[in-house]
Amino acid sequence: MNTMMRKGVGMTKHVKVTVSRIPECDFCDAPAKYDGKTKFGPWANMCGRCFVRHGIGLGLGRGQELVLAVAGIDRPR
Ligand SMILES: [Zn+2]
């Protein structure tokens, strides 16, 4: 996958994804807060604590924050 190189991006782009249900952390039983790439290679659902320990950061191709969709707001009528 080729991504365009951008110059002058100082801050990590915070990527969020809206989900209808928060999955469990793949490392413990806590509710996951992030879906991201781990230091081991594969992607995983991670809670905040496990993301700090195993994740490689947020951004395109790295990880995204899971945001719970509020029922009735994100659904098209
Ligand atoms: Zn965890």
Secondary-structure map:
Blueprint: E1 16-19, E2 34-37, E3 43-46, H1 48-54, E4 63-68
The protein binds zinc ion (ZN).
Zinc ion binds at residues 25, 27-28, 30, 46-47, 49-50.
Explain what you see.
Helix content is 9%, strand content 23%. With 77 residues, it is mostly beta strands. The chain has a domain at 16-68. It has a four-stranded mixed beta sheet with strand order 1-4-2-3. A hairpin with a 5-residue loop joins β2 (34-37) and β3. The termini are far apart. It binds zinc ion.
Our Rg estimate from Cα atoms comes to 14 Å
In spatial order, strands of the major sheet run: 1-4-2-3
- Please give the number of β-strands: 4
Strand content: 15-25%
The major beta sheet can be summarized as: 4 strands, mixed
The general outline is globular
Give the CA-CA distance, first to last residue.
Answer: 35 Å
Q: What percentage of residues falls in helices of 4 or more residues?
A: under 10%
Multimeric status of the protein: single chain
Spell out the helices and strands N to C: EEEHE
The averaged pLDDT comes out at 84
Structural class: mainly beta
Number of helices: 1
- Poorly predicted runs: none
Bound molecules: zinc ion
State the main characteristics.
mainly beta, 9% helix, binds zinc ion, four-stranded mixed beta sheet, 4 strands, globular, single chain, 23% strand, 77 residues, 1 helix
